[in-house]
Amino acid sequence: MDPVIVNAEVLKKMDSALMGNLSDDVIGQLIASARLMAIGDGCPKFVTAASGTIPVLDMATQYMALHMASIQGKTGKGIVMEKVGELQRQYANTSNLGWLNSSKWGQLYLWLYRKYGDAGSRSRVTVIEH
Q1: Which pTM was predicted?
Q2: 88-91 and 52-54: which strand pairing?
Q3: What letter does residue 100 receive in the DSSP assignment?
Q4: Distance between CA atoms of 121 and 20, rounded to whole angstroms?
Q5: Which tens digits make up the pLDDT trace of 16-52?
Q6: Cα torsion for 94, 100, 105, 109, to the nearest 10°?
Q7: Which of 25, 60, 108, 129 is the most buried (most CB within 10 A)?
Q8: What is the distance between the alpha carbons of residues 19 and 30, in angstroms, rounded to a whole number?
């Protein structure tokens, strides 16, 4: 099994457009937060499958760190297009997507969570009546 490495260099290779302008220190903080979230969500370190071992915790950490970076800035605000001449800005309707479904990286994290995390034993959503 090839280990999955979670560091700034790898995340920049996974999505250079998203991570290229972030410092290694900022990416390191995103990784640390993402790791804690993945552990809190019950992602196991490894899962054994028929064809090998899957490093679920490292994969979840990568996906969550990339997701947290993607929800900042213009993309996170739903801006999908801007035009400078004759000023124009276009927004995507993300109101019913949910936090993790708002980026491709969040969707990958959610898939891992549902497959290997605590998704079957507890709910991510709590309804609070007001």
Answers
A1: 0.75
A2: unpaired
A3: G
A4: 37
A5: 999 999 999 999 999 999 999 999 999 999 999 899 9
A6: -160
A7: 60
A8: 11
Residue the block writes with tokens 């071992």: 53
The amino acid present at 95, given as its one-letter code, is S
Please give the torsion angle defined by the CA atoms of residues 20, 25, 30 and 31, in that order, rounded to the nearest 10 degrees.
Answer: 100
Q: Exposed e or buried b for every residue in 81-93, given b needs 16+ CB within 10 A? A: eeeeeeeeeeeee
Phi, psi dihedrals of residue 88, rounded to the nearest 5°: -145, 140
Give, for 28, the enclosing helix (H) or strand (E). Answer: helix 24-40
Name the residue with tokens 């993402």. Answer: 34
Amino acid at 63: Y
